[in-house]
Write a structure and sequence with these properties.
With 113 residues, the protein is an alpha/beta fold. It has two helices and six strands; from the N terminus they run βαββαβββ.
Amino acid sequence: MPFIQTKTNCSVSADQEKALKTRFGKTIEHLPGKTERWLMLDFEDNCRMWFGGSDAPCAFLEVKLFGRAGGSSCDQLTAAITEDIGAVLGVPADRVYVKYEEIDHWGWNRSNF
């Protein structure tokens, strides 16, 4: 039940969005028990964003997941999704923030996990 929301000040074409979807579908496996089967994604492009006083390409990703992932798994995921954003959108790793939110209650299909 992971959800990754990507906000960037870059334009994201349909092809780039599909490329990120494919890459994130593999990348999410860095978290124990998480697969693309349950992955939900949201992309917001052309956001008015500044990082370090500059409006050069940057991105903010929020990763929300049911349960706990552990520090080393999050480290691996951060490295991988930062690489994904760089490869597809050209955003340098040092201009990407990744926020994690671990959630105890997650609803789906009329009930909660």
